[in-house]
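In the current project phase, the collection of sequences with tokenised folds has grown. A representative record is quoted in full directly below:
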Amino acid sequence: MPVHNWDKLERKALNPVITGKVVQTEKAMVARITCPVGPVNMHTHDFDQITNMLRGKMRWVIGGEGEYIVGPNDVMLMRAGVAHGGEVLEEAEYLDVFVPPRQDFSWYKQNL
């Protein structure tokens, strides 16, 4: 069983806005992400996403469900195909779990 330590994994730019660290298996991915203050465009994707806020504050709009202000220890469930987006109100750090792994982060390979 591999064991990894977030402090020892390399932080990389995951897209033009966010940085993070990623660990994945064939069927699941977890990313520890830091996101600066600013907008999060409405979007959908073909994987489930579970977001666990560690620090900061975000305003999320979940299609068909409403608007939520979330902070540390809040957990959001975003199902595949449901539009979501919003705004980072205070620099945020959170754990995202993606099932199956999101393909646009799959280029990220640690020496694990």
